[in-house]
Design brief:
By secondary structure, the chain is an alpha/beta fold. The chain contains 12 helices and 10 strands.
């Protein structure tokens, strides 16, 4: 790595230590439903059109919001309604209004199919600030991953967002073996549709994705994806970044606007559909820290989350003796199994691809 990268990583290490000690909440995910209008191959929650678990009543989450407001200025916290598909909730506009009326910022992640012109008008009126829409490849690859003719609906949503002023929005793409080769063409299509911000994720072994090898990149494919992202960022014209999938060696500071850091439990928390309190939405249930039905959210946030704020326990197995430990501290929490074992290391994949 270059001297500049090492300096940036050392600075991020100091930032991470401060965040672990002070943990200022800045993003709160609310899994407002486990229902979804699609049935995606890679869904980590295994969501379906119907769910045995009812949607959490808005009144229950409002109590969480009021509690959070006693700890932090609401205007500093982005509340993301996620699912499932949040737009299947018939009261989603009311949910947004309840969030923004308390001074919180409101955003949601959607597959886009239900984001009609009328729905967009209503959620904007309720104070919506941010949207992320999933586009997982060109039409054949997207529909293979998400089902039906969902690509058409997602692109229609992108068109609506591109025509909207004052809204922060981007497109999310889950890279896999099916769509990797068409990434350059997808980039052109997104630019033509008015997309200026694009985030690429890689799929990890959870939920339905666990046994589908077509969803996971080989080390060589992963390295190719990193080169693609780095090339797009050099060329400009598209604000493309890679997700928080761990330390990336020579690609640190190249494929993201910052060097690696996992914010789960230090800046990010989530409330799941059953009331469980955790870090980010992708982390396994074994790392749940409490439940809103018998714990105050603020007490949990201030007093627990030790597995995410003190990662010394993760220095074992492949991580024990790793030269990147000080910068990686065991990788993102969502790549840790129920017993703390490391399920996958993208840094190791990049080393294997050399």
């Amino acid at each position: 790595m270059k001297t500049r990268q090492i300096l940036e990583l050392e600075n991020m290490r100091r930032v991470r230590r401060w965040l672990e000690a002070n943990h200022p909440l800045r993003q709160l995910f609310w899994e407002c439903t486990l229902r979804c209008n699609l049935s995606c191959r890679h869904c980590g929650s295994d969501c379906r059109k119907t769910s045995a678990l009812p949607d959490m009543p808005l009144a229950h989450f409002e109590q969480v919001l009021d509690d959070v407001a006693t700890m932090v200025q609401p205007g500093r916290v982005l509340v993301n309604t996620v699912g499932g598909e949040p737009l299947v909730r018939p009261d989603i506009v009311e949910c947004g209004r309840a969030i923004t009326s308390r001074g919180f910022m409101w955003g949601f992640v959607t597959n886009g199919v239900l984001l009609t012109k009328e729905m967009l008008h209503d959620v904007l009126a309720a104070g919506l600030r941010t949207v992320a829409v999933s586009i997982d490849g060109l039409e054949p690859e997207h529909n293979w991953l998400r089902g039906g003719d969902s690509f058409e609906g997602a692109m229609r949503a992108v068109g609506l967002l591109a025509a909207t002023r004052g809204l922060t929005w981007d497109v999310i793409t889950c890279a896999n073996q099916r769509n990797l080769s068409s990434m350059p063409e997808l980039r052109q299509q997104l630019v033509a549709a008015g997309v200026r911000k694009w985030r690429i994720f890689t799929i990890f072994p959870q939920g339905r994705a666990k046994k589908n090898n077509e969803l996971f990149l080989t080390p060589e494919q992963y390295a190719a994806l990193m080169r693609f992202i780095a090339g797009v960022r050099r060329e400009g014209g598209m604000n493309l970044s890679y997700s928080c999938e761990g330390f990336l060696g020579d690609f640190e500071g190249v494929v993201r606007n910052h060097t690696y850091r996992c914010d789960a439990g230090t800046m990010t928390a989530s409330v799941l559909a059953n009331g469980d309190i955790g870090g980010c939405m992708s982390i396994r249930s074994h790392y749940v820290q409490g439940n809103i039905y018998h714990d105050r959210f603020t007490d949990v946030w201030q007093q627990r989350f030790e597995p995410m704020r003190d990662r010394r326990w993760a220095k074992r197995g492949a991580c024990d003796g790793c030269k990147a430990w000080d910068w990686c501290v065991g990788g993102p929490m969502h790549l840790r199994g129920d017993n703390g074992e490391l399920l996958h290391c993208n840094y190791q994949a990049l080393l294997e691809a050399q």
